């Protein structure tokens, strides 16, 4: 009886809300998410105990309008999660329009392209058991509970596993969001969770190449392409104590260069192709992480956006800057006049520093009641499970 009631509620959500549910905002206030995640945990505890979840082989094939027993198994899983309404025949072995729509819902909730096709990524998400999802929910609940005592305030929230940036008002409700690119997997270039305050932004910034990138990327590039620095409007400086001297890249033997013995610094001039774009947002932190524009706009169209060296690239930095330069965050603000200037590098301080949080949330519940899951990009969920003993 309980299981049937759960399915009927799922049907109501599926029918009444439609695809617009995935355009809903999210209230990120810790207390709100704690309550919602606790309810989700109760549901997944029940799913884990039922032991009805079906796992699929890697080479299983789902084809629209064709009949196959694996379609029955897929229907069962999507009934359990509420992505498929209970009125749809559970024993139907065809991949019909109803099942395809349910797959789209499942894909959206897992941050996947919602094409209705069960490809490798969707199959991988389907093969995560309710017990595994339960542990994922418990880790994320713990993260929210740790922040529940904080005083609510307007802030910039970057959710690393979701590749999104959110402006939150003082109640924790989302006022605006945009896409971001975050750091690559692997310890060297991860975007690390942290909290700070954005104090100022820099227009038309130069980019001082970090030494790690100079060693790992610039030196090999110069060995293959001696014109790389000049073509990218980069200058090379020889370092001696606190003094730096501009030198010609042609004067350096790049094949024998040992940066530990001969320290150099590379600085890229402002411009359209500068790696930081036209704006960067500065906040104190021990990892030299900041938010910034980028000339590589095409990367924002990728569903999985892990291409940076640790900093966060923002799809619409001008809009973010406009919001930050105003005391309030109404919709449709006109661009701040200062942002239109094309003069050399210039720092602009905010009227009031704004909290910024780089968070690692792999599950949450939006304001439409939809439960979302994301991949554990950096293995931080796995580490937290061990730490919390879950």
UniProtKB/TrEMBL annotation:
<dbReference type="InterPro" id="IPR002477">
    <property type="entry name" value="Peptidoglycan-bd-like"/>
</dbReference>
<feature type="signal peptide">
    <location>
        <begin position="1"/>
        <end position="23"/>
    </location>
</feature>
<dbReference type="Pfam" id="PF03734">
    <property type="entry name" value="YkuD"/>
</dbReference>
<keyword id="KW-0961">Cell wall biogenesis/degradation</keyword>
<comment type="pathway">
    <text>Cell wall biogenesis; peptidoglycan biosynthesis.</text>
</comment>
<keyword id="KW-0573">Peptidoglycan synthesis</keyword>
<feature type="active site" description="Nucleophile">
    <location>
        <position position="311"/>
    </location>
</feature>
<dbReference type="InterPro" id="IPR036366">
    <property type="entry name" value="PGBDSf"/>
</dbReference>
<dbReference type="Pfam" id="PF01471">
    <property type="entry name" value="PG_binding_1"/>
</dbReference>
<comment type="similarity">
    <text>Belongs to the YkuD family.</text>
</comment>
<feature type="domain" description="L,D-TPase catalytic">
    <location>
        <begin position="154"/>
        <end position="357"/>
    </location>
</feature>
<protein>
    <submittedName>
        <fullName>L,D-transpeptidase family protein</fullName>
    </submittedName>
</protein>
<dbReference type="GO" id="GO:0009252">
    <property type="term" value="P:peptidoglycan biosynthetic process"/>
</dbReference>
<keyword id="KW-0133">Cell shape</keyword>
<dbReference type="GO" id="GO:0004180">
    <property type="term" value="F:carboxypeptidase activity"/>
</dbReference>
<keyword id="KW-0732">Signal</keyword>
<feature type="active site" description="Proton donor/acceptor">
    <location>
        <position position="292"/>
    </location>
</feature>
<dbReference type="GO" id="GO:0071555">
    <property type="term" value="P:cell wall organization"/>
</dbReference>
<keyword id="KW-0808">Transferase</keyword>
<dbReference type="InterPro" id="IPR005490">
    <property type="entry name" value="LD_TPept_cat_dom"/>
</dbReference>
<dbReference type="InterPro" id="IPR038063">
    <property type="entry name" value="Transpep_catalytic_dom"/>
</dbReference>
<dbReference type="GO" id="GO:0008360">
    <property type="term" value="P:regulation of cell shape"/>
</dbReference>
<dbReference type="InterPro" id="IPR036365">
    <property type="entry name" value="PGBD-like_sf"/>
</dbReference>
<dbReference type="InterPro" id="IPR052905">
    <property type="entry name" value="LD-transpeptidase_YkuD-like"/>
</dbReference>
<dbReference type="GO" id="GO:0016740">
    <property type="term" value="F:transferase activity"/>
</dbReference>
């Amino acid at each position: 009886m309980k299981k049937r009631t759960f399915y009927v509620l799922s049907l109501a959500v599926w029918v009444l809300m439609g695809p617009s549910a995935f355009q809903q905002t999210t209230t990120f206030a810790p207390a709100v998410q704690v309550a919602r995640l606790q309810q989700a945990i109760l549901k997944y505890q029940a799913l884990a105990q039922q032991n009805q979840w079906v796992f699929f082989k890697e080479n299983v094939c789902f084809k629209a309008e064709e009949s196959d027993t694996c379609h029955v198994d897929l229907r069962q899983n999507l009934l359990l999660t509420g992505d498929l309404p209970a009125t749809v025949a559970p024993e139907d072995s065809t991949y019909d329009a109803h099942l395809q729509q349910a797959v789209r819902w499942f894909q959206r909730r897992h941050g996947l392209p919602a094409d209705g096709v069960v490809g490798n990524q969707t199959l991988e998400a389907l093969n995560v058991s309710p017990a595994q999802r339960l542990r994922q929910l418990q880790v994320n609940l713990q993260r929210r509970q740790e922040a529940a005592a904080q005083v609510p305030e307007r802030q910039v929230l970057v959710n690393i596993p979701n590749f999104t940036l959110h402006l939150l008002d003082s109640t924790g409700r989302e006022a605006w969001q945009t896409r971001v690119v975050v750091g690559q997997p692997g310890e060297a270039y991860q975007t690390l969770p942290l909290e700070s305050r954005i104090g100022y932004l820099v227009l038309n910034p130069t980019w001082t190449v970090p030494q790690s990138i100079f060693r790992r990327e610039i030196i090999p590039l110069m060995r293959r392409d001696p014109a790389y620095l000049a073509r990218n409007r980069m200058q090379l400086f020889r370092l001696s104590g606190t003094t730096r001297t501009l030198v010609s890249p042609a004067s350096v033997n790049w094949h024998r260069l040992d940066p530990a013995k001969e320290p150099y610094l590379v600085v890229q001039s402002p411009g359209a192709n500068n790696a930081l774009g036209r704006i960067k947002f500065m906040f104190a932190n021990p990892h030299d992480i900041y938010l910034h524009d980028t000339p590589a706009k095409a990367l924002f169209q990728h569903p999985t956006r892990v291409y940076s060296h640790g900093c966060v690239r923002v799809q619409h930095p001008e809009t973010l800057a406009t919001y930050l330069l105003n005391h309030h965050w109404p919709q449709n603000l006109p661009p701040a006049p200062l942002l239109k200037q094309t003069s050399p590098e210039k720092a602009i301080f905010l009227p009031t520093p704004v909290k910024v949080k780089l968070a690692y949330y792999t599950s949450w519940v939006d304001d439409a009641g939809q439960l979302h899951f994301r991949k554990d990009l950096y293995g931080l969920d796995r580490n937290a499970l061990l730490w919390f003993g879950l």
